[in-house]
Amino acid sequence: MQTRALGRTGVPVSEIGFGAWGIGKTFWIGADDAESMRALDRAIDLGVNFIDTALGYGRGHSESLVGQVIRERGAEQGVFVATKVPPKNLVWPAQRGVPVSQCFPPGHVTSCAERSLGNLGLDRIDLLQLHTWQDEYLDQRETGWAEALLKLKEQGKVRFLGISINDHDPASALRAVASGLFDSVQVIYNIFDQSPEEELFAACRERGVGVIARVPFDEGALTGRITAATTFPAGDFRNEYFRGDRKREVEERVQKLNALLGDEAANLPELALRFCLADEAVSTVIPGMRTVRNVESNAAVSDGRRLSGALRERLRGHAWTRNYYK
């Protein structure tokens, strides 16, 4: 497993991290706790030292599983745990014009961090992120949200601070990157959504802000396993994400991507992960993983090889600007 520095923090994090949304067992339906814990354990065996979870993932269930595995292994010092404060109004993504006082009042920030510490059973959170973001929050610091975050750092309960950027809206965090308040940003970045390359990555490189690339498989579209006939369990958010004619559109676009497979990437998931790792602004990529099989195949991509410039250029032609919930 190769590592990269998480921006100016200098902390070496594994190129492939563990996205722990799915093991929370809500929205992503079908996880099995025993297999989830085996997957976490195997990931650590393979050198994955970055785990991204959130209080909102199963109301802390994901955090509890992550913490249990880390404690049982005695790996508190070897695994970097990132978690997130959910917005108090429980609205994702953050809406423009809604004041930060409705989303991240200081008491809410503090109490959520304490709950996360309790769920994890750890003495410290390595990276605490706000789970939604609008740059206008920076103009509302008088409400005390930023000071609440900084106080958690001063108390030693949190090591670094970050934000999770609104879906498919990387420009909404440019001021946050420039503010100096945050050590990292988490952003959707994949073959279909290449928009972070336009402005965000350059800003992060300039300011030394780490980049956590999420949704590298576009919620499963870039695994190659979604066809027009695919169905999802009741209550699974993918019923909405792939509503209408979207599954057919995905299948057609994936067929074109399959023509690029070969020596540089043997299958579509490998190509998707190598695409994300090809940009040096990216500190770590966090595919969702719920099984040992997926952990092993994803971790194997971090072998030091990089996509050629020619293949990266061809992949630029597969960017897909669309209404994600049409």
Number of domains: 1
Tell me the strand percentage band: 5-15%
User: In the CATH hierarchy, what is the class?
Assistant: Alpha Beta
**CATH topology-level name:** TIM Barrel
**Overall residue-averaged pLDDT value:** 95
Low-confidence stretches: none
Percentage of residues assigned to helices: 25-40%
Q: Outline the biggest β-sheet.
A: 8 strands, parallel
Question: Could you characterize the architecture of this molecule?
Answer:
The chain has 326 residues and is of the alpha/beta class. The protein has a single domain (10-316), classed as TIM Barrel, CATH 3.20.20.100. The protein is built from twelve helices and ten strands. The protein has helices at residues 33-45, 61-73, 100-103, 106-120, 145-154, 174-179, 200-207, 238-241, 246-258, 268-277, 292-299, 309-316, and strands at residues 3-5, 12-14, 18-19, 50-52, 80-85, 125-130, 158-164, 184-188, 210-214, 284-286. The strands form two sheets. The chain has an eight-stranded parallel β-sheet with strand order 3-4-5-6-7-8-9-10, covered by helices on one side. Helix 1 packs across helix 2 (61-73) and helix 1 (33-45) packs parallel to helix 11 (292-299). It is globular, with a radius of gyration of 19 Å. It starts with a strand and ends in a 10-residue tail after the last helix. The relative contact order is 0.15.
